[in-house]
Amino acid sequence: MDQFLGHWKLVKSDNFEAYLKAVNVSLVLRKVASRVTTYEEITQDSDNTCHLKLTSTFTTNTLTFQLGVPFKEITPSGHRMKTTITIEDDKWIQIQMADDPTATDSKVTRRLRDPDCMIATYEAGDVVAYRTMARYKP
């Protein structure tokens, strides 16, 4: 987990709007979300509680979780999910299982290309998107 801790800024996005469509995000939200710069702050408390804070011009959303323990998540688009985050083979794996009929299962895998570059792979059905994040100091 330690390698993922810190502040990250989106620097490149490929096919993200198609991914958002695959997970049933509305057209307006897709257009906005696929064009704004997002920031992620990943922290871990002394009791191993983890936090993923996602920030953009329009919204801030924070996930609080324990690795390997399923938790309820409401996505920025309002979908209810049952989410589990694990670290496997130096990859951050986030499985989102739909908890309402309008949601779609999804998987996000984060891995470091190098200590200052994180690649996130978003998968829903047969749609795959990639987002590249650069480590930064706020």
What is the helix tally?
2
**Alpha-beta classification:** mainly beta
Q: Report how far apart the termini are.
A: 20 Å
Q: Which CATH top level class fits?
A: Mainly Beta
**Which homologous superfamily in CATH is the superfamily?**
Calycin beta-barrel core domain
**What is the alpha-carbon Rg in Å?**
14 Å
Mean pLDDT: 95
Q: How many strands?
A: 10
Q: Tell me the fraction of residues in β-strands, as a range.
A: over 45%
CATH architecture: Beta Barrel
- Total domain count: 1
CATH third-tier fold name: Lipocalin
Largest sheet: 10 strands, antiparallel
Question: How do the helices and strands follow one another from N- to C-terminus?
Answer: EHHEEEEEEEEE
Sequence stretches where pLDDT stays below 50 over 5 or more residues: none
Overall morphology = globular
Q: Going across the major beta sheet, what is the strand order?
A: 4-3-2-1-10-9-8-7-6-5
Q: Tell me the helix content.
A: 10-25%
Structure description:
The protein is mainly beta and 138 residues long. It has one domain (2-133): Lipocalin. The chain contains two helices and ten strands. The protein has helices at residues 16-22, 27-33; strands at residues 6-14, 39-44, 50-55, 60-65, 71-74, 80-88, 91-98, 106-114, 117-124, 127-136. It has a ten-stranded antiparallel beta sheet. The chain is globular and about 35 Å long. The protein starts with 5 loop residues before the first strand and ends with a strand. The model has no long low-confidence stretch (mean pLDDT 95).
